[in-house]
Amino acid sequence: MFLFFRDGLTPIPLPLYSQISIFMTHLSNYGNDRLGLYTFRKLVKFLQTWTHLKLQTLPPVQLAQRYFQIFPEERDPLWQDPCEDKRHKDIWSKEKTCDRFPKLLIIGPQKTGTTALYLFLGMHPDLTSNYPSKETFEEIQFFNGHNYHRGIDWYMEYFPLPSNTSSDFYFEKSANYFDSEVAARRAAALLPKAKIITILINPADRAYSWYQHQRAHDDPLALRYTFHEVITATHNAPLKLRVLQNRCLVPGWYSTHMDRWLSHYHPSQVLVLDGQMLRTEPAAVMDKIQKFLGLVNTVNYHKILAFDPKKGFWCQLLDGGKTKCLGKSKGRKYPDMDSDSRAFLKEHYRDHNVELSKLLYRIGQPLPGWLREELLNSR
Ligand code: A3P
């Protein structure tokens, strides 16, 4: 057993079965509280005299290494909601407030219309989006990757200082959250009351759109291999191609990813949108979202969105009748998917789609139109 203590204030019952016990109080007590140290020394002496316990310690760095060897799952921090516990909130600096965290996350997945939704939400006077990331010019991508280690102050900086009227409702969208192994757990630890929106389109179309997106971004592998070659690559294929294949196909395993989010968030906090409907009837979808968020001011999106025939999509209607649409990278023109790939993906996603339908039934949310069609056609 290892015993590590920086300073001790209150006598703490020693957990005998723990391999490592860490005792710590706030450092500020260290200089002032001699009684704490005295008590601790006495406690150690008592244990050495009256028990057969063998106490050991190590210098801090070695002890940390030993600790993380035993508890590798604790290597990653997990930022908790600082306002959950009044004592934590009280020691937080006065300028900081949990109102500066988002109350809504658009989690993706990529290529389902997340940017359009982000634009439409930003048109609502009561909703405020994050500032664009300096690195990606768009998404913050806090919960899924290395940014998480930059801490919650870094995250908060992406949102304006809340006004005192405090009807602020911040939101952010990072489309990679959906299929990230870690994002749901991390998001739920920091934002347990947040609402979560995901958009689902036919996973086959999503995979194809993603492939086209990679080609448009000059991904050399996506330029080298056809879509069919990417999705059908076997175990013998070059590793890089397999990696590309996973990135293309795995986000479409919707039920697996949804299950993960639902193991951290109550179903009433989660809204699943039909991406096809967002594309064709965005105003109706926005009505549904406003209800889900419980917004007091309801905006009539029928009046502020307009279909732009040139773009082929719904766009923001500006004063004077002009439209502001998403840039060239959204709603790209590319050839239809070949029928062999379509057939392959139908098979590939069949079980995942069946599981998704069960999951949606379980949480009482309607099946998207494309999912109904897939299920009907797969009989
Ligand atoms: P394509 O470019 O393949 O057509 P995301 O923003 O999540 O990356 O999704 C991009 C997709 O959003 C586009 O894929 C497009 O089909 C879809 N989309 C839905 N509504 C849109 C809109 N109003 N404007 C542009 N694209 C929209």
TrEMBL record:
Q: Output the SUPFAM superfamilies linked to this UniProt entry.
A: P-loop containing nucleoside triphosphate hydrolases (SSF52540)
According to its UniProt record, in which pathway does this protein act? Glycan metabolism; heparin biosynthesis; Glycan metabolism; heparan sulfate biosynthesis
| Cellular localization per UniProt | Golgi apparatus membrane
Q: How does it sit in the bilayer?
A: Single-pass type II membrane protein
E.C. numbers: 2.8.2.-
Give GO cellular component annotations, separated by semicolons: Golgi membrane
**InterPro entries for this protein:** NST/OST, P-loop_NTPase, Sulfotransferase_dom
Alphabetized UniProt keyword annotations: Disulfide bond, Glycoprotein, Golgi apparatus, Hydrolase, Membrane, Multifunctional enzyme, Signal-anchor, Transferase, Transmembrane, Transmembrane helix
The entry's 3'-phosphoadenylyl sulfate-binding residues are 209, 314, 330-334
Residue numbers annotated as active site: 111 (for sulfotransferase activity)
Q: List the disulfide bonds.
A: 315-325
The protein's name: Sulfotransferase
Q: Which organism is it from?
A: Conger conger (Conger eel)
